[in-house]
Each structure stands twice: as structure tokens, then as C-alpha cells.
Amino acid sequence: MVRAQTSHPLDPLSAAEISVAVATVRAAGATPEVRDSMRFIEVTLLEPVKSVVALADAYFFPPFQPSLLPKTKGGPVIPSKLPPRQARLVVYNKRSNETSIWIVELSEVHAATRGGHHRGKAISSKVVPDVQPPMDAVEYAECEAVVKDFPPFREAMKRRGIEDMDLVMVDAWCAGYHSDADAPSRRLAKPLIFCRTESDCPMENGYARPVEGIHVLVDMQNMVVIEFEDRKLIPLPPADPLRNYTPGETRGGVDRSDVKPLQIIQPEGPSFRVNGHFVQWQKWNFRIGFTPREGLVIYSVAYIDGSRGRRPVAHRLSFVEMVVPYGDPNEPHYRKNAFDAGEDGLGKNAHSLKKGCDCLGYIKYFDAHFTNFTGGVETIENCVCLHEEDHGILWKHQDWRSGLAEVRRSRRLTVSFICTVANYEYGFFWHFYQDGKIEAEVKLTGILSLGALQPGETRKYGTTIAPGLYAPVHQHFFVARMDMAVDCKPGETFNQVVEVNVKVEEPGKNNVHNNAFYAEEELLRSELQAIRDCNPLSARHWIVRNTRNVNRTGQLTGFKIVPGSNCLPLAGSEAKFLRRAPFLKHNLWVTPYARDEMYPGGEFPNQNPRVGEGLATWVKQNRSLEEADIVLWYVFGITHIPRLEDWPVMPVDRIGFTLMPHGFFNCSPAVDVPPSTCDVEIKENGIAVKPIQNGLLAKL
């Protein structure tokens, strides 16, 4: 069969496709003024309907599995090509302050006729009223320049002893929505100000000297300061000698000298195989995607289960939103409640990862392509890291009678990316295990967002970490959206969700020894019933089951979501940030799949005046979940009470959850993992090398 496309329907847009999509939209502008005013917020793949994905995976791309398609009388009718890929563009008009959404069809022309160039066709466009799209790095840089050049601001800094504007850092935070003054009729930013002490030291920790008492409001459309007030003269904190985090003498300290090298090597190469964006490893296979908003996306997750073949687990996994509310009611900290995905974009703020630093071992990297504000294409090289890790013992047993022991080491496949949003770093990880588990993990690090104190002042809403310097209490919340497909082909609706709670048996004839407890299941039949919270006291968890597939004991096959540590917002019910983020009020939400239900706070949370937009509104339809195409929305968070040990840079905090097979397999899938060779010492170029896992070695 002639392959009509070189890109799978779920592959991220290439740099060429982004360029064509931008050029197509720009050419469709009605006037030169409209075209010149276009600013490109996002250009992403418009993901096709699931039937197109099934067709592609059946006949055009790996895994080449015809059984994904529904059976038809007389056999399947196989088309000669797939539908053209489409791009979805969010465009901001800087002149009119309007936001529009465009759909562009991308078609590939044969090299013999047009030199292999792409062409595009505008399919639709619509203006979305009363919204503000995410901010862009270009706007942040322009905002900083405008504020630093504003005479009243320079005078206010002079009052604080600062005349060198090269020392000043202006972080342009989105305004959020606190009153009608923040309505999206204007594109607003309320910057936070910081000041370094040495202009010739680019790696100095400038966040160590917050500038408080200055109120600035910037019109980001016209890039002018529209409100300014020097409200209170709060002295700049003195330069903390412990503020910097660079190596050794550059920070004014000495690094440890007793850390010996440790190298991870795989002399036979990795156990994974990669074909484009299709990954195969230890019976798992899936596709890797990437978007400017979510960052890493995992598609078409399936497990090869012997004679039962390729068994789907999930259609799409990603982190769709995160919210960081601060707990200090004082200015400016009360308005620090960033929606880092919806207001900025996790993918747009991703890093280029360096081998041997962020990831170790034999690494496969994936690049990411984005549009910049003016429509050019930018590439983050080595943006997504794929590699294997040793993960300790997978299982072990020693027979005390014979003295014989069996032990297996665990290896996991990790897919990850890391982004920086202002002062914080976030690492997002999906780990795949040999026992059939999938673990979602977020690692938090970076620098605290600080406040300044008056001499002798303390704040109960934070921790004093240096003279004149304190770190407010705050929380970090993340939302994982999981479009599940447990034993379901694309488009099938045979999943349901049950909640499991452990109950203590009542004293009586069934519990004469008062030791009995049992797991009780409850089917979550509708969306409103499925608004749930974690409960560690009852070991609460949830199972996504296939209603028509059973294991060898007759139980329905399933995958369960096992919570890790978690929390709920520590704020009153009328807190302003909860107006835009009511989804934070509960840990689990369940909806039937709907193609346009992607983001729990709605697509445009920036300055959003509408109450409860998104997930909290969708579930009011109270749709049936008894047999459906299930989407899980898991909300998990961490409460950060800063410590002195979090300064000047925070060691990593980890939070997450696990998707674990529950009756999905007939026995443990880890039983066939081969023994390790940990006790065998190999000589390699005169260096002792001791394996820590089959094929994965630690050179000491």
C-alpha cells in the first residue's frame, strides 16, 4: 500500500507544518492591518477522531493491528490514504484585542510535482468573545522593558537606593480575576519586582531581593503602564550571603570533594525501540506527543499480553492544568495564584535537556516545535527524554527450608520533560514498569517566591529564611487527564468506574474475633456521583473496568488509580482563585469522553470572569457512566510550608499517583522477568563493572 502520509495522525506538528499553518492564516487576513496585528499564541495538532487513529494503527503505522477496526460484513474496506492532518491555531489580534481560533487543513504534495512542499487550506475561523489567551515570552520581555523605562518606577527604585536598572527583574504575572477591573476587555499584567545586587553576575539569585510596596498595572495590548503607585517604602532585604546556588567559589562556598563518579552504561544498547514517535518496551507500546500547553502527551497506551495480544489501557494521558495559590493575604501575595498551563503553557516553557545531567543512561531525545509570538517557528532540541532506569527490587522470595532464593530487579521506562515557570521548575514524568504499572510523577524544585519584611517584622503566613526575607506558604495543584480505554478499541464505550473502600466488619457472629475487614465496591453511575475525594483512612481507590471482558476467575478486567499523598485547597469557599478553579475542590472527577472537553478550567482561564467554567460545569449534565468511554480527571497537590533548607534552592519534592492493573492479567506479569546478574563482576578495560540490572550497568 502506498503510504499517503509520512506523519502518524497523532504525531506533533513538524516545523514545516507549523510554518504552513501560520502562513495560511496570515494570508487569510482580510486587510494588511489585520495580518500585521496577528500574534500566534498556539499552533497545535487538531487531534483526529478516534476512528482515524484506529485506521492508522491498523494499516498505515505501527502497531499494524487490523483488529482495532470493527468487523464488517464482507471484510474491511481499506482506504488508500488517511484524511489530511489539521492544525488548530489560537491567534490574538494585537490591534483589536480579539482572540480567534482557526482550523487549517495541511496537505502533502508529492515531491515530483511541487518539490515536496506543504500547502494549507483554512477550514474555519471564529472569534471567541470575552477571553484573554495565554501570555507569551515576548510579551514578558516587553513588559519588563516598559516598566523599567517608566519614570515614576525609576524614581521609586531610586528611593530604595537602586539607580542601575540592569539590576532590576520584572516578572509579568497574569492579573487573574479578582473584580470587574480585571475583566478580559483589557489584556493585563501585574508584575512582581526583584532586584539583584551585582549587575556583572548573571547567575546571581535575583529572587533573593523582592521589591515590595510598588503597585504596577500594565496594559499588555498597548504595552503601557496604566496604573502606578508607590504605596509603601519597604526596605530592600540585605544581600544574603547564602543566596546563590552556583558551583563552588562562584557562590562564595566550596563544593563537596568526596563524591566519586557513577556512570550508567548499557553496552548492548537499550531495551526500547523507537519508530518515529512510536515506542516499544517490555510489552508496553505507546506514542509520544507534545503540545505548547500540556507539554508531554502519551497516546495509545497498550500492553502485549501473550496469546491475548495487544490490549489497550489508555487512549491519551497528560497533565492539563496546574494552579499555585499562595496563602498570604497581604499585597502582592494574595493575587499569586498562577494557572501555569492555561496562562503560560508548560510545553512552551520546557527545557532543552542535557545528557548526563537531567537524564542518565542510554537516552532517546525528542525535539519540540512551537510558534513564537510573531509566527516564526522555534525548536527546543532534546525536549523530551526517554530512558531506562534501575528501580531496585521488583520481587523476591527465599525458601527458608531449602535456602534457595529468587530475586528480580525492577527496570522502568521513563518519559519526561522539565519546564521553568518564573522561579519554579517542574519535572513531569510517566514511568512504565515491568509488572504492568504506570506511575505519574511530578518533581518540584527551583527557587522560592519570596516577600520582604520590615525590620523586626515576622509573618505567620510564611517562614523567615534570612534577615528581611520570608517565604509565604503556598500549594501546588496538578490535574492529570486520563482518557482511559481498558480493553477497549478506539471508540468503544465499555468502561465503568467503581470506588473501593475498606470497611471494618461490625462486631457479631461474622466477626467474633473483632479482626475482620473487607473491600466494598460501589459503581459510580453518573458524573455527579463520581465527584470524589481521597480517603487514606479507608484505603480508597478507584478501578476502571471493562464491562465485557473477564479474567480467568470471571472478574471484570481493570486498572485502578491508587492515590499518593494529596491535599485539598486550604482556602475559604469564596476565595477568588476558586472562582476560576472549582475543579480543585475535589480529587477525582469522571466524565464520558467529549472531544471538546480538554481543560478543567476552560480553554482560557486568563482573566476569566465566568464562574465555574470547564469541568465543574460539564459534570452538571450528570451524564451516565455505567458503560462509557471514560475520562478520569485526577487532582493532586502538595502544601508547601517553606523551610530554611529550601533556600537558596529547593531540593526536589515528589508527588503523583499510580495506575495499577487490577484483574487485568491472569497472574503477575513480572514473573517472567529474567534473573539479574548482580553478583558477577566483569572486567572492562581494567575497570571493575558490576551490573545492577540486566544490560544496565553501574560503573564505579
TrEMBL record:
Belongs to the copper/topaquinone oxidase family. Its EC number is 1.4.3.-. It comes from Carpinus fangiana. PANTHER family: AMINE OXIDASE, COPPER AMINE OXIDASE. It comes from the Eukaryota. Its main location: other. This is Amine oxidase. It is an enzyme of class 1 (oxidoreductase). The lineage of its organism: Eukaryota, Viridiplantae, Streptophyta, Embryophyta, Tracheophyta.
